Amino acid sequence: MHEAFFEAGKGWELGPDWPGARCGAKTRQGTHCQNPAMRGKARCRNHGGKSTGAKTAEGLAKLETLHLKHGRFTKAAKAEAKRRAQIGREIRAELRDIEKEAIAAGTLGKDWREMFKP
Ligand SMILES: [Zn+2]
Description:
single chain; mainly alpha; elongated; 40% helix; Putative_zinc-bd; 3 helices
């Protein structure tokens, strides 16, 4: 840091002991920028803190592709997983009903599962 700056008796409000949020942008040295981040943001004014985000359809589409890794958690994939889970629940419920009926009719013993144990 600049020695003369401290010798002049001026306080440095945003010095090393400042408790606020720091900018996390990667510098050319590979370290974090460490400048004070802008209020409510994670970046300083030099590293996109002033940005209000993508606005154009082109920019929003680019963001979408940047943040999509494999698509297993897209809305469509989640809806499909829910649909399959529901089918599974329905099939298992039907099997339970069939089992109950077969046991009640006497075609299946109460401990029929024991016969298939290894
Ligand atoms: Zn920065």
